[in-house]
Specification:
The complex is a heterotrimer of chains A (770), B (290) and C (160).
Chain A: E1 5-6, H1 39-44, E2 59-64, E3 71-77, H2 79-82, E4 87-92, E5 102-103, E6 110-111, E7 117-118, E8 126-130, H3 133-142, E9 144-149, H4 156-160, E10 183-191, E11 201-209, E12 221-227, E13 230-235, H5 240-251, E14 258-261, H6 278-288, E15 292-295, H7 298-302, E16 309-318, E17 324-334, H8 342-350, E18 361-369, H9 384-402, H10 406-413, H11 432-443, E19 453-463, E20 468-477, E21 482-486, H12 495-507, E22 514-517, H13 538-562, E23 570-572, E24 575-577, E25 582-584, H14 585-593, E26 599-608, E27 623-634, E28 641-651, H15 658-678, E29 709-714, H16 731-734, H17 736-748, H18 759-767
Parallel strand pairs in A: 2-15, 13-14, 17-18, 21-22, 28-29
Antiparallel strand pairs in A: 1-29, 2-8, 3-7, 3-9, 4-8, 5-6, 10-18, 11-16, 12-13, 12-15, 16-17, 19-27, 20-21, 20-26, 23-24, 24-25, 27-28
Helix pairs in contact in A: 5-6, 8-9, 9-17, 12-13, 13-14, 15-17
Chain B: E1 5-7, H1 12-22, E2 26-29, H2 35-41, E3 48-51, E4 62-65, E5 68-72, H3 77-82, H4 84-89, H5 91-98, H6 103-106, H7 111-117, H8 124-130, E6 134-139, E7 142-147, E8 152-154, E9 157-158, E10 165-172, E11 178-185, E12 196-203, E13 208-213, E14 220-224, H9 236-246, H10 261-289
Parallel strand pairs in B: 1-3, 2-3
Antiparallel strand pairs in B: 4-5, 5-10, 6-7, 6-10, 8-9, 11-12, 12-13, 13-14
Helix pairs in contact in B: 5-8
Chain C: E1 4-11, E2 14-21, H1 26-33, E3 52-55, E4 58-61, E5 74-76, H2 89-96, H3 106-119, H4 125-131, H5 142-159
Parallel strand pairs in C: 1-5
Antiparallel strand pairs in C: 1-2, 3-4, 3-5
The chains are: A alpha+beta (770), B alpha+beta (290), C alpha+beta (160).
Chain lengths: 770, 290, 160
C-alpha cells in the first residue's frame, strides 16, 4: 500500500455494517469531514423540496394517460371532467401551438404532450388543471380517451425486426440513413485490427442488463408561474441552466425572462438532469395566468425516467498467458420512445467498453434502439454498467478457460499510469493497480472458502466530463464571512459542503460562516450541468479560482497597507504571509476595505472546451476508477444469494471530504445491488408496466445489504480538481453486477448472463446445470 | 382518492346495521393497510367506509377463555408477534405476524383484516389453519363461529355474509406441546409479499399439519395423521411420497409476476421439508423443557 | 358523516381542532392543512416510509391512515423531535455519522429510529436494520443510518 493510500474512511475488515468508523470530524478545512452543509434542515424536516412549496392562487395539474404503450388517440372527451367542482381546464395537443413544440437535449423529438399517438405506457395525452389536488385527480379520472391500440415494440429483437413499427416519426430526421429503422444512431469506435488479430483463445458470449428506474425518494415536482413578462419555474432539476434554455426557446422568451429555481433535489441519480414536464406545466400556467403545480406520483416517475436496458455480445481474444489480444463488442441499448439524453448515454457509456486495460485491437459498436417504452435517460454510471457487466464477465470466462487467476489476469492487462489505453484519449490518470490490490486484500482473495461460497472481483472505469463550463462567484464580506454562488445542484452528493470547505480553507473562514447559494438562475452564475461526477472538479475549480482572485486582491491590499512589493506577499489557505510576519485574512481585509466596508468579489471560470475531432466531442477530464470484490454464498435449494463480504475501492485523487466519499461509494454500491439482484421492469403484452409502483418494483432495504461492506479510497492527488481531486460517486456502481455475478459463478460453477440475479433466476440456472 | 362517507359506529349492533344496509357499497376499515391502497388506486370505490376501531366490543386484545386464546379482530400484528402466549404456544403465528410488512405496517394491520382480505399470500392464514383457528362472526342474525378451514373461498372472497363482520379469532390451546414454524419466500430480504407461504405444526402424537398459501386461489391445509412425516426414522421414500400428496393441491397461477409456477412449486417443497424439520426440532425442544 | 369532519388531534404536543375530508389521509392533512411538510410523500402504498409519523405512541405510514382515524389521538412528526431548536441526540448522530445525503427520506428515518430507541434502548445492528426496514433510502446510506442509531443509543446510555 502506497503512502498515498488512505484507509481513514474505511471500516476495519470484519466490522459489522453500521459499526464503521467514518464520522464527522474536523473544522471543515479541505480533507476534514465536517457535518454536511444543509444537514440541519434535513434532519429537522425544515428542508424545502419543490413539493413543499406553494404559491398563492396556484392550480393543481394532473396527467391523463392510457393503459397501453402505443395507441392512436381517437378522441378526448372532457365533458364529465368539466362538471367536477374546481375544474379549470384540460390541456391536450390541440390546445398547444401548432406545429407541436418539441424539445430534447440531443434531438428535438419530444412533444410537450402526446400528439396523435402515445408512444409508451405513461405518455400523457392530456393534463387537467383544477383548484385543488382532489379536483384535479377526480377530473383527470373522468377525462375519457378513446384510443386504438397499435402494434408496438418493447424489446431489442422486436424493435430491430425489419417489420417493426417505427417508434419515431420519420419526418423528424429526414436525411438520416437510419430513418427507416428503429436505430436512432450507431456509435463505432475502435483501434487496431480486430479481424487480423491472432489469439490463443476467443470467448464469445451474450449478456443482458435489465430496464431499471431511478426511484428517487422525492418524486419529480414542477411549479411554473407567470412572472411579469416572463415565467418563474420551480423544478427538482439537476441542470437548471439547461432547463432555462429549453423553456426560453419553447416560449420564445429571452433567457433573462425565464427564472429557474431549483431547490436541492431529493435524489437525482441522473433522472432529474433533463427537462420532462416543465414545458407542459409552463404552457398550462400561461394559459391559466396563474401558477400551476404538478407533483408526480412515484408511479409517474417510473413512467418518466429509467436506465436503458442492454443486450451486449462480447468476443474477447486472449493470449495463453492471459494478455488481451482484442475486444469485439456489440451493444444494443434499448432506449425509449423519445431520445432524451439516451443516445449520449449509449455513445459515452459504450466508449470505454474495453475497460482500463491494454487492448491491442478493439471494435465497439453500440446502437441506440428506440422502443415503445419509457424514455431512458442518464442514470448513475451513464451507460457503462451495461457493457461492464458483459466485458468483465467475459474476462472471467477467459481466465477460467486459461487456468489463470482472475485477479492476476486483470493485473496483467491493467493500464499503467500515463499509458494511452484508449489511443486517442486521456492516458491512464491513476495508480489503478493500488485500488485493485487493495480490494483483493480486503476480500481475502485466494483464501479457502466454505462450500457454497465464491469470490468475485471486477473493475470499472468511466470517462469523466468531456466538456464543461462552470462559473462561480465568491464574496468575502467585511466580517470575514463568505458567500459562494455556484450553479451546481446538491441532490445529496454533497457539493454544497465541498464548495464550502474549499472557500473556508482558501479564505480562512470558519465553515459555519460560509453560505453556498445554488438553485436560482437569476442570482447564481451559469453552470453547464450537474452530471458525470463533475462538480468537485469543474465547479470546484471555478470556486477555487474565484477564491484565488480574492486572494490576489488581498495581496494587493496587504502590500498597499504595509508598503510592500506585492510580489513579496503570499496568501495561502487563509493566511496572509508578509516577508516578516503572518496576518489573518481579517487583519488585512478590515483595514483594507476601510471605513465604508464593502467586500471583495472573486469570479472563477472553469472551461473544458469541445474537441471536434474526438469521438465523444472531448477527451475525459479524468477517469473514475473502482475495483469491487465480493464474497457470495448461494443457497442451492432456493437460489438465494447472500453477500458475505463486500469491498469497494475507488481512486479519488484527493478526498476533500473523506466521509462524503465513503457515503457516495457505499451508496453507489448498494444502489448497484438493485439492478444486480432484484430490480427490473415487467411489461405485459401491451407494453403496460405491470410492476408500476413500490409494491412490486423492489429496491434494496436495510435488510438487503451485504453482511459486511468496506469502502476505501486511493488518494495520490493526481486528479485535475482542487488539491488533486478527481470526480467520484459513480465509480462504485460501475462493476457491482460484474463482481457479484463473478462471485455467484465461483460459488455455483454456473455462469448467469442475465440480470438481475433473482433467487428464481439463480435457482433455474442451477437446475439446468449439467 | 374518491370521496366517501365515513362511519365510526360505537357499537357492534350499529356496525352490523350499517354493513347490512349498505351491503357491497360499504367497506370495513380496520388497519387500513390494504383498504387505503385500494381506495387510492380505484380498485375499490365504496360509498361508505365503516371504521371498526371505536367499537367497545371490538377493543383489540388477546385473552384466554375456556381453553382458547381469543384474539380480537382489531388486534394488530405488532401485538400478536409480541404476545408471550402466542410466542410460546403458537410460534408460527407469532412468526407470521412478525413478517407482515414493516414496523409501520404491523402497527396498523389487524389479524381480522388479514383474513378478511383473503389474499392467497396472507401471511397469517397458514398458521391459523395449522393451529385450528375458529373465526367468530357477528351479523344480523347474531353470532356464529366457523373453523378457519371453511373460511377462505378464493382470492378476496370468504364465507362472510352481508352485514357480517369478524369479531375475533380463537385458537384452541393445545393440550400437548406442538412445534410450529412459519416460512415464506420473497423476492428480497426486506419486507415483501410472499410468493410462497408455509406453516408446519407437529404435535407430540406425531400428527403433522401443513398449510400453505400463495400457490393457489386460497390457502390449503393438509394433515398427516399417520406420524410418518414427523418420523425421522421413516423411510425417505415414504416421507417424500406423503409430502407430495400433501402438497398436491398447490396450483399456482401463471399470471403472477412475483414468481413462476414451477419455481413456486419447487420452493413449496423446499419450505415443506425445512418446515417439517424445524417444527420437529421445536417440538423436541418443547418436550425437553417440560 | 360526509363532507368535512371536525377532529381534534394533538400534533407535536399542541392540541388542534380542525375539519378534514373523510377521504384525506393523515399525510395529506399534515402537509396541506397543517403545513407540516417535514413529513414526505413518495410511494403512497406503505412501502417507502417517507411519511412515517408517530400516532398514539406507535409509528405508522401516514399515507395509509385516514386523518379522521387520528381523531382524539396524538401525532408526532419530525418537526416535533427537536426541542427549542436544538437537535436531538439522534438528529445529531445522523449528521455525525454521515447518514444524510439528499435528505428526503430522513424525516421518516428519524421518526422510525426515534421509535426504535423508545422501544429498545441498545438495539443490535440486526434490530436497527429490522426496525428501519420500512424506510427506503435510495442514496443507500443504510450503513451510516444504522451507525447513527447505534451511536445515539450509546450516547444516551452514556448520559444516563
Amino acid at each position: 500500500m502506497s503512502a498515498g493510500m488512505s484507509a481513514a474512511a474505511g471500516a476495519a475488515p470484519g466490522a459489522a455494517p453500521g459499526t464503521a468508523t467514518g464520522t464527522a470530524t474536523g473544522s471543515g478545512r479541505v480533507g476534514d469531514s465536517p457535518r454536511r452543509v444543509g444537514g440541519h434542515d434535513r434532519v429537522t424536516g425544515l428542508q424545502r423540496y419543490v413539493a413543499d412549496l406553494h404559491l398563492p392562487d396556484e392550480l393543481h395539474a394532473r396527467l391523463v394517460t392510457v393503459p397501453v404503450a402505443r395507441a392512436r388517440i381517437v378522441t378526448i372527451d372532457a365533458s364529465a371532467a368539466e362538471r367536477v367542482p374546481g375544474f379549470r381546464f384540460v390541456m391536450t395537443a390541440a390546445d398547444l401551438p401548432q406545429p407541436m413544440p418539441r424539445f430534447g437535449p440531443q434531438f428535438r423529438d419530444r412533444p410537450v404532450i402526446a400528439v396523435g399517438e402515445t408512444k409508451y405506457h405513461g405518455d400523457p395525452v392530456a393534463a387537467v388543471a383544477a383548484d385543488t389536488r382532489d379536483a384535479a385527480e377526480e377530473a383527470a379520472g373522468l377525462v375519457r380517451v378513446d384510443y386504438e391500440e397499435l402494434p408496438a415494440a418493447f424489446t431489442v429483437a422486436a424493435a430491430l425486426d425489419p417489420a417493426a413499427p417505427l417508434v419515431q416519426d420519420p419526418s423528424l430526421r429526414p436525411n438520416d440513413p437510419l430513418v427507416g429503422t428503429n436505430v436512432l444512431r450507431e456509435h463505432r469506435v475502435g483501434w487496431g485490427d480486430v479481424e487480423a488479430a491472432v489469439a490463443d483463445l476467443v470467448v464469445e458470449q451474450r449478456y443482458t442488463f435489465p430496464m431499471v428506474t431511478h426511484f428517487a425518494i422525492e418524486p419529480h415536482a414542477y411549479i411554473v408561474a407567470p412572472d411579469g413578462d416572463g415565467i418563474a419555474v420551480w423544478s427538482s432539476i439537476q441542470h437548471p441552466n439547461w432547463l432555462q434554455k429549453v423553456l426560453a426557446e419553447l416560449l420564445r422568451l429571452p433567457l433573462s425572462k425565464v427564472r429557474v429555481h431549483s431547490p436541492d433535489p431529493g435524489g437525482g441519480f441522473g433522472g432529474k438532469q433533463h427537462t420532462k414536464y416543465e414545458p407542459l406545466v409552463a404552457f398550462m400556467a400561461l394559459r391559466a395566468g396563474r401558477p400551476v403545480r404538478l407533483v408526480l406520483t412515484l408511479e409517474e416517475t417510473f413512467q418518466a425516467v429509467r436506465r436503458a436496458a442492454a443486450e451486449v455480445r462480447v468476443r474477447t481474444g486472449f493470449q495463453s498467458d492471459g494478455t488481451l489480444a482484442f475486444q469485439d463488442i456489440e451493444a444494443n441499448y434499448l432506449i425509449g420512445a423519445y431520445a432524451d439524453i439516451a443516445d449520449r448515454v449509449v455513445g459515452k457509456g459504450s466508449y470505454p467498453g474495453c475497460g482500463p486495460y491494454r487492448v491491442p485491437a478493439a471494435r465497439i459498436l453500440a446502437r441506440s434502439v428506440l422502443s415503445h417504452t419509457v424514455p431512458s435517460t442518464a442514470f448513475r454510471g451513464f451507460g457503462n454498467p451495461q457493457v461492464n457487466w458483459a466485458v468483465e464477465s467475459n474476462l472471467d470466462e477467459g481466465a477460467r478457460a486459461l487456468g489463470i487467476d482472475r485477479l492476476e489476469l486483470r493485473l496483467r492487462n491493467l493500464a499503467r499510469p500515463g499509458e494511452a489505453f484508449i489511443p486517442f484519449d486521456t492516458p491512464c490518470d491513476g495508480q489503478w493497480e493500488q485500488s485493485v490490490r487493495r480490494a483483493a486484500e480486503l476480500i481475502g482473495w485466494g483464501r479457502p472458502l466454505p462450500a457454497g461460497h465464491g469470490l468475485g472481483i471486477a473493475v470499472g472505469i468511466k470517462s469523466g466530463p468531456t466538456t464543461g463550463l462552470s462559473y462561480a462567484t465568491v464574496r468575502l464580506l467585511v466580517d470575514g464571512s463568505v458567500i459562494v454562488f455556484a450553479g451546481t445542484s446538491d441532490m445529496g452528493q454533497g457539493a454544497r459542503t465541498v464548495f464550502a470547505q474549499i472557500a473556508a480553507d482558501e479564505l480562512g473562514a470558519p465553515l459555519d460562516a460560509v453560505t453556498v447559494v445554488m438553485g436560482d438562475t437569476a442570482i447564481v452564475p451559469y453552470d453547464q450541468q450537474t452530471s458525470a461526477s463533475r462538480s468537485t472538479v469543474l465547479m470546484g475549480n471555478a470556486v477555487l479560482a474565484a477564491c484565488r482572485e480574492i486572494q490576489g486582491k488581498l495581496r494587493a491590499m496587504a502590500a498597499r497597507l504595509h508598503g510592500l512589493d506585492e510580489a513579496t506577499v503570499m496568501v495561502d489557505r487563509g493566511v496572509v504571509r508578509l516577508p516578516e510576519r503572518e496576518l489573518t485574512i481579517l487583519e488585512v481585509l478590515v483595514p483594507g476595505l476601510g471605513r465604508l466596508g464593502g467586500e471583495l468579489i472573486g469570479n472563477g471560470e472553469m472551461r473544458k472546451d469541445a474537441e471536434p475531432d474526438h469521438p465523444l466531442g472531448g477527451s475525459a477530464a479524468f477517469f473514475e476508477f473502482n475495483c469491487t470484490a465480493v464474497e457470495a454464498a448461494v443457497d442451492e435449494e432456493t437460489g438465494d444469494v447472500t453477500l458475505v463480504h463486500y469491498a469497494t475501492v475507488s481512486d479519488v485523487g484527493k478526498a476533500i471530504n473523506p466521509l462524503q466519499v465513503r457515503m457516495q461509494d457505499e451508496g453507489a454500491a448498494i444502489q448497484g445491488l438493485g439492478h444486480t439482484l432484484m430490480e427490473h421492469y415487467i411489461f405485459d403484452e401491451s407494453g403496460r408496466i405491470r410492476n408500476l409502483g413500490a409494491i412490486d418494483y423492489r429496491i434494496p432495504t436495510s435488510l438487503d445489504l451485504p453482511l459486511e461492506i468496506v469502502s476505501e479510497h486511493v488518494e495520490n492527488e493526481d486528479g485535475p480538481g482542487p488539491y488533486g481531486s478527481k470526480g467520484m460517486s459513480e465509480g462504485a456502481l460501475l462493476c457491482v453486477a460484474s463482481a457479484v455475478g463473478a462471485a455467484v459463478r465461483d460459488a455455483t460453477g454456473v455462469a448467469i448472463r442475465d440480470l438481475p440475479l433473482t433467487p428464481e433466476r439463480v435457482w433455474r440456472a442451477l437446475q439446468e446445470r449439467p | 382518492m374518491h370521496a366517501f362517507s365515513y362511519e365510526r359506529p360505537a357499537t357492534l349492533a350499529r356496525a352490523v346495521a350499517l354493513l347490512e344496509a349498505h351491503g357491497p357499497e360499504a367497506r370495513v376499515l380496520a388497519g387500513g393497510t390494504d383498504l387505503i391502497i385500494r381506495l387510492r388506486d380505484g380498485s375499490l370505490a365504496p360509498t361508505v367506509v365503516v371504521d371498526l376501531k371505536r367499537i367497545a366490543e371490538l377493543e383489540p386484545g388477546i385473552r384466554e377463555a375456556d381453553g382458547r386464546l381469543v384474539i380480537g379482530a382489531t388486534t394488530v400484528m405488532t401485538d400478536i408477534a409480541a404476545d408471550a402466549r402466542i410466542r410460546r404456544r403458537f410460534e408460527a403465528l407469532a412468526e407470521a405476524a412478525a413478517v407482515v410488512g414493516s414496523v409501520q405496517i404491523r402497527n396498523r394491520a389487524t389479524l381480522g383484516g388479514n383474513i378478511c382480505n383473503a389474499s392467497p399470500a396472507a401471511d397469517t392464514a397458514p398458521a391459523l389453519l395449522v393451529h385450528g383457528a375458529v373465526v367468530v362472526i357477528a351479523g344480523p342474525s347474531g353470532s356464529r363461529r366457523i373453523p378457519i378451514d371453511g373460511w377462505f373461498v378464493r382470492s378476496g372472497v370468504t364465507t362472510l355474509g352481508r352485514g357480517e363482520l369478524v369479531t375475533a379469532i380463537e385458537l384452541p390451546l393445545p393440550a400437548a406441546p406442538m412445534g410450529s414454524v412459519h416460512l415464506r419466500r420473497t423476492r428480497r430480504r426486506g419486507h415483501d409479499l410472499a410468493s410462497v407461504t408455509l406453516c408446519c405444526g407437529v404435535d407430540a402424537s406425531g400428527v403433522t399439519r401443513l398449510a400453505y398459501g400463495s400457490v393457489g386461489p386460497r390457502p390449503v391445509l393438509a394433515v398427516d395423521a399417520t406420524g410418518v412425516l414427523a418420523d425421522r426414522d421413516a423411510a425417505p421414500d415414504a416421507r417424500t411420497g406423503l409430502l407430495e400428496r400433501m402438497l398436491a393441491e398447490a396450483t399456482p397461477s401463471a399470471r403472477s409476476m412475483r414468481a413462476s409456477p414451477d419455481y413456486r412449486l419447487a420452493m413449496l417443497r423446499v419450505l415443506a421439508r425445512r418446515g417439517v424439520d424445524i417444527a420437529t426440532a421445536r417440538l423436541a425442544a418443547a418436550e425437553g423443557r417440560r | 358523516m360526509s363532507g368535512r369532519i371536525p377532529i381534534q388531534v394533538t400534533v407535536n404536543g399542541r392540541a388542534r381542532a380542525f375539519e378534514v375530508a373523510a377521504h384525506h389521509t393523515l399525510l395529506e392533512v399534515l402537509r396541506d392543512d397543517l403545513q407540516l411538510t417535514g413529513t414526505k410523500e413518495c410511494c403512497l402504498v406503505g412501502e417507502c416510509g417517507a411519511c412515517t409519523v408517530r400516532l398514539d405512541g406507535r409509528i405508522v405510514d401516514s399515507c395509509l391512515v385516514l386523518a379522521v382515524e387520528a381523531d382524539g389521538g396524538e401525532v408526532t412528526t419530525v418537526e416535533g423531535l427537536a426541542s427549542d431548536g436544538r437537535l436531538s441526540r439522534l438528529q445529531g448522530a445522523f449528521l455525525d455519522e454521515g447518514a444524510v445525503q439528499c435528505g428526503f427520506c430522513i424525516p421518516g428515518q428519524i421518526v422510525a429510529a426515534d421509535d426504535l430507541l423508545r422501544r429498545v434502548a441498545r438495539p443490535t445492528v440486526g434490530e436497527i436494520q429490522e426496525g428501519l426496514a420500512g424506510n427506503l433510502c435510495r442514496c443507500a446510506c443504510y450503513g451510516q443510518i444504522t451507525a447513527a442509531v447505534a451511536a445515539a443509543a450509546a450516547a444516551e446510555a452514556g448520559a444516563r
